Amino acid sequence: MSVIADHFVPARAPFSAVVKAGQVMRIIDLESQQAVDALFYNALDFSERYSAQDTLAGQAASGKPFYLETGSVLLSNEGRKMMTLMADTCGYHDTCAGACSCESNTVRFGHETRFMHSCRENFLAELQKYGMGKRDLVSNVNFFMNVPIRPDGEMTVVDGVSEPGGYVDLRAEMDVLVLISNCPQVNNPCNGFRPTPIRIIISEG
Questions:
Q1: Measured between alpha carbons, how far is 33 from 48 in angstroms, rounded to an integer?
Q2: How far is the C-alpha of 45 from the C-alpha of 77, rounded, in Å?
Q3: Residue 104 has what pLDDT?
Q4: What is the pLDDT of residues 70-79, one digit of tens each?
């Protein structure tokens, strides 16, 4: 495939880009166990955006599990295809646990974490570049993040399973604005308690 853009995203940093229909975005976990949070919007109409509910309902109807894997289709709030997971080396990506925030850190890990940097702050910084704000925050995908459901129904975050150089390939089914938070979380195992950089390559399909 012909590479259009190749970006190094530092640990804890935000990133955004438009991936045009037919193009493929590869997210590479350079050092392993790095959660990568992502939001998706129709690049031509931001009111259409990723819907975890529609995506999981679509998967359930086809007999797929609650997590995302190769072949999963990300659906919008209009029920349209946004991106398809064409390939990945991890085999497990979460879309239920949401993105970390100052508020959730405080509730989960104690008041002393209140002012730690979070994915919500990364997303808000990127949203402002496109004239959007808090009202435009929607459900997200947590690539490489391991969030199993225990037999008693409790959702937990445990050690990631991605290896160094692990990747996921996403093919755009429409022009998609992708916002990335290279997750800064240090309070749970999603980053192995040590955020690391990632690489994003956009290619012609």
A1: 31
A2: 12
A3: 60
A4: 999 999 999 9
Rounded mean pLDDT, 38-52: 98
The total of other beta-carbon atoms located within 10 Å of residue 159's CB is: 11
- 180 forms bridges with which residues in the sheet? 15, 38
pTM of the full structure: 0.91
> How far apart (Å, rounded) are the C-alpha atoms in residues 109 and 102?
10
Q: Residue 46 sits in which domain range?
A: 3-203
Kindly report, residue by residue over 116-158, the tens digit of the pLDDT.
567 899 999 999 999 999 999 999 999 998 877 777 767 677 6
Query: Measured between alpha carbons, how far is 145 from 113 in angstroms, rounded to an integer?
Result: 21
DSSP 4: E
The residue type found at 65 is P
> Within a 13 Å sphere around the CA of 86, how many CA atoms are in the beta-carbon half?
14
Task: State how far the Cα of 134 lies from the Cα of 10, in Å rounded to an integer.
Answer: 24
Give how many domains the chain has, as a whole number: 1
